[in-house]
Amino acid sequence: MKRFYKEASVSPAGDAFAIMLDGRPMKTPQRNALAVPTPALADAIAAEWAAQEDDIVPVSMPLTALAQGALDQVGNERERIVSRIAAFADSDMLYYRADGGQQALIDHQAEHWDPLLEWARQRYDVGFNLIHGIRYQAQPEETVARLTAAVEAQPDFVIAAMLSLVGLSGSLIATLGLVEQQYDIDRLWPLANLEELWQEQQWGRDDQAAALRDRKKKEFEAAARFLDLSRS
Predict the structure, then answer these.
(1) How far apart are CA 177 and CA 72, in angstroms?
(2) What is the pLDDT of residue 134?
(3) Whether the model pTM is above 0.90
(4) CA within 13 Å, CB half, 130
(5) Is 10 helix (H, G, I), strand (E, B) or coil?
(6) Which residues lie below 8 Å from residue 27, measured CB to CB, with a gap of 6+?
């Protein structure tokens, strides 16, 4: 799509802040007003639109996409999306450890992942079953229920960020650590990629895997920024 506007700006809209193009309020794909909960997020989205040149490039506007998701998807299908996020309470990446033949990796996982699980144990008063290997093992019902409740308690714009964060990291615990502002992305991203980075140290760099990881990191950083701006 060619750029069709001269100016992107922000205007108060009740309790929210609307993004405007040439003074006209923007709409989401489902025709909801593109209005967000904080002026900081609205300014950042307007800046994405202002930075477009002759052609509008949607992939260069991750905050816009996440805001549209909050308004169109979470707003209309909140229960389904909460369920998708909460499903990781029973299958979090952090539960799954190397099997007995890889003691060095088991120790590495314990050193770096156990503190995050310990934070969650204390924060939510839950317990976890650790699994050595890849065979599924259910987590305690109370753990799943309490972590699900922690997801359900979040507002729509945080839910939109969490959907992206949990998908990219494979970990609800890590995502909650970010939501609760106990961990930052510089600490969490290496934890989310611990096994891949471990294998890279042992066998050398795979350029394709590294490029994919870098691309996912940019998406993770955008979702984390959206999370911060939506409540600042």
Answers:
(1) 26
(2) 87
(3) yes
(4) 13
(5) strand
(6) 33, 34
